[in-house]
């Protein structure tokens, strides 16, 4: 079985599924986005991440 590890944002359960088996919430990828020196929108993604803290 191949896949990317995912995490539930509510109860922090790690799984390979797109839906948490414990609470049924949508899971998120735990891997960071790829880095590129030519990233045009990196500044805006960092701004949004700071606002959401």
UniProtKB/TrEMBL annotation:
InterPro entries per the UniProt record, alphabetical: H/ACA_rnp_Nop10, H/ACA_rnp_Nop10_sf, Nop10_arc-typ
One Pfam match: Nop10p
Keyword rRNA processing: yes
Gene3D superfamilies cross-referenced by the UniProt entry: H/ACA ribonucleoprotein complex, subunit Nop10
Residues forming coiled coils: none
Family: Belongs to the NOP10 family.
Stated role: Involved in ribosome biogenesis; more specifically in 18S rRNA pseudouridylation and in cleavage of pre-rRNA.
Record protein name field: Ribosome biogenesis protein Nop10
């Amino acid at each position: 079985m191949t896949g990317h590890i995912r995490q539930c944002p509510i109860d922090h359960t790690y799984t390979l599924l797109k839906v948490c088996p414990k609470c049924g919430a949508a899971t998120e990828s735990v891997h960071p986005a790829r880095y590129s020196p030519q990233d045009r929108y990196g500044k805006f993604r960092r701004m949004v991440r700071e606002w959401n803290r």
